[in-house]
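Q: Sequence in, structure out?
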Amino acid sequence: MAAAFTRTDVERIASLANLELDAADLELFAKQLGEILAYAAEVQQVDTSGVPPTSHVATRRAAERPDQLGPCLDVADVLANAPDAAKDAGLFRVPRVITHG
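A: Exactly. Output:
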């Protein structure tokens, strides 16, 4: 049984998100959102009293390795293929993307 979710609820949410929905979409989304809320209520009923709390679902051991220096490309070789490199500074030049309003 889907939780009560009305067209008016969907219209309010759509308005907050600046979405324009037609009548068919309003009915469809009201039904789908009601089903989602009903499923969330069902999941909340699961007994988790014996499950220890977790802060992450994946272990982070792989990311916690020490940094290791590896082989690198020569700066001059890399900049040789750049369309507008500042070779004397060892940098790439890129177009400005932030402007002052």
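Residues 47 and 53 are 13 Å apart (CA to CA).
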